[in-house]
Amino acid sequence: MVGCSEIAGNKPMGWDEVRKAKRRLSREQGAIIKDWGGRIPIALIYPNSYYVGMSNLGIHAIYSLLNNYREVVCERAFWEREDKNRKLPTLSLESQRPLSDFAVLAFSITYELDYFNVVQILKASGIPLYAADRDERHPLVIAGGPCIMANPLPLSPFFDCLCIGEAEVILPALLPILFKGIAGQRADMLKALASLPGVYVPLAHSGGPVVRQWATNLDDFPVHSVILTPDTELGNLYLIEVERGCNWGCRFCLVSTIFSPMRFRSMDKLVEQAQIGLKYRKRIGLVGAAVSDHPQIEELLVRLSQMGAELSICSLRIKPLSSAVLREMVKGGAQTIALAPEAGSQRLREVIKKGISEDDILEAVAKVAEQGVKQLKLYFMIGLPSETDEDIEEIINLTLSGKSILDRHQTGCRIILTIVPFVPKAGTPFQWLPMAPLSTLNHRLSILKNNLSPKGIKLKCESPAWSQVQGVLARGDAKLAEVLANMEEVSLSGWRRATEKCHLDIDFYVHQKWDTAEKLPWAMLNSGTEPEKLKLELNKAWPLASHRTPA
User: Fold this and answer.
1) Which among 435, 442, 441, 438 is positioned nearest to 512, based on CA atoms?
2) Measured between alpha carbons, how far is 25 from 4 in angstroms, rounded to an integer?
3) Can you tell me the distance from the alpha carbon of 469 to that of 112, in angstroms, rounded to the nearest whole number?
4) CA distance 308 to 429
5) How far apart are CA 317 and CA 497, in angstroms?
6) What pLDDT is recorded for position 334?
7) Which of 220, 283, 411, 419, CA to CA, is 20 to 30 A from 161?
8) What is the pLDDT of residue 412?
């Protein structure tokens, strides 16, 4: 068995991982097993657990796209917690081969904190971490995904090329270069890749703009569950992508820029995909940043319900919130509705351009109450630009007003608050703004917990300390690679030791307001949104915040 040559006791090293992979495969429907003969083997790597990764529709889409090519064999790989602790080499799921056996390693990166796992995967696999240290003996290492599209700089020294845009458009041009050049000189192949639209090759970049690529017509590229397994968070759902992008333009959010323009799939294609999905699952999960904005959403849900589908929608806009949509969701078995006010005060909602009022929020809660839903999730951010303790008090007041509405309907519906610190993201109008200090974030979390927990409201809070790390990575440059490479363990203490060793100025990356006249680390990216437009949005926000002292 490849990759299991070291003996530990009577079992080859990695035997447990092989057995686990085979057990997972036996519980899957839809896995694609190909013979390697005459094909380019590509490992599609999600740098987090199988449980998380197999709920990511992007993995399903790219897996299907790559395996549709006769010349390609694509297998999946993940990074499990036990791999981290034991420093075991990652094995592919389908054939249980080590990553060093593959010609191409293709990472899909969704979360900044997974950067640590990217480094661990490469180190544990015995592949040189830095692209400059690799040659023709080693796999070509590439990456894409939302984090890469926003700011590839922190990981750029580790990758041969980075894809800025959507795989459906980039792969048809990229793969022929791999087919032709994978057995030749790496420098020649990198030069050819660097000439492609939307492909950033750090070692061969000319200095010109890298223009983000996107699919014009989503109906040409169906995206839905390809592999079904019970061993994942959304294992009871057949997932279908309804749309990409968002037209609302919240000033903290990446989606409006890196997935613009907003595009919808046609209702006929969605119904067609649902008919296939219902052969495998009773529940259909509709996926997208703004699913309820689909121009035919009510008709779509009625048709899916008539087909016998139970329905789940990943995102509902507070305004407009259709009672018909809620009704069809509840009829289809939905027990939880999630809404995102983001901020408690009207002033702060205007700062972030949320476009909703307190009346809109409470009206939406009333509509949820009328449907007898068992659980209402509310998403709020803390540490938003210009936020004060008064804004936190308004989160409390708004939540308690919502609870009062639910209690009057006597539905037994409980409220869960998810609290996330604001993190400035590259490519957004707030990319120049700082995060709030950790002391401020912890203080405001305490206010929320002390006032809401005794009222029976559950709070789920993202760690401010880890959010600070995320902020450094989100606004980082290539200097971050040295820190990532020097991480001895993936922990806050390991992070602090590595930043001290590398003399990284945390305050600069995450707690300082940047001058809009200065060149940004990711300035070579052309997202399709002009920097001047982002600056204009920032300038529109600041008069609303100017009478408050920023956090």
Assistant:
1) 435
2) 19
3) 9
4) 43
5) 42
6) 84
7) 220
8) 85
Q: Which residues of the chain have pLDDT under 70?
A: 1-13, 83-87, 544-551
Query: Which secondary structure element, helix H or strand E, spans residue 543, and what is its range?
Result: helix 531-545
Q: In degrees, to the nearest 5, what angle opens at C-alpha 342 toward C-alphas 531 and 447?
A: 125
Find the radius of gyration of the CA atoms of the chain: 24
Cβ 285 vs Cβ 294: under 8 Å = no
Spatial CA neighbour of 205 closest among 257, 161, 146, 258: 161
Buried b (16+ CB within 10 A) or exposed e, 297-307: bbebbbbbbee
For 140-193, the three-class secondary structure string (H helix, E strand, C coil) is EEEEECHHHHHCCHHHHHHCCEEECECHHHHHHHHHHHHHHHCCCCHHHHHHHH
Stated as kind and residue range, the H or E segment containing 391 is: helix 389-409
User: Quick one: pLDDT at residue 84?
Assistant: 59
Please give the structure tokens belonging to residue 88: 């075991």
- Closest to 414 measured CA to CA, from 457, 364, 451: 457
Q: What is the C-alpha to C-alpha distance for residues 7 and 16, in angstroms, rounded to an integer?
A: 13
User: Given this model, what pLDDT does residue 522 score?
Assistant: 97
Query: Cβ neighbours of residue 407 under 8 Å, at least 6 residues apart?
Result: none
The sign of the CA dihedral 414, 441, 147, 25 is: negative
3-class secondary structure, 32: coil
Which pair of tokens denotes residue 349?
A: 């909602």
In Å, what is the CA distance from 223 to each residue of 6, 227, 285? Answer: 41, 12, 12
CB 33 within 8 A of CB 94: yes
Report pLDDT digits (tens) over 65-106. 999 999 999 999 999 977 555 567 899 999 999 999 999 999
Which amino acid is residue 182, in one-letter code?
I
Q: Report the distance separating Cα 525 and Cα 426, nearest Å.
A: 10
Rounded distance, CA 210 to CA 17, Å?
39
Type of residue at 149: M
DSSP letters for 445-461? HHHHHHHHGGGT-EEEE
Strand boundaries in 345-435, DSSP class E: 375-382, 414-421
Residue 422 — φ and ψ, nearest 5°? -65, 130
Strand partners, 165: 213
Question: Does the global pTM surpass 0.85?
Answer: yes
User: Is 526 in a helix, a strand, or coil?
Assistant: strand
Q: Which domains does the chain have, with CATH numbers?
A: 7-211 (3.40.50)
User: Which residues fall within 8 angstroms of residue 135, CB to CB, at 6 or more apart?
Assistant: 186
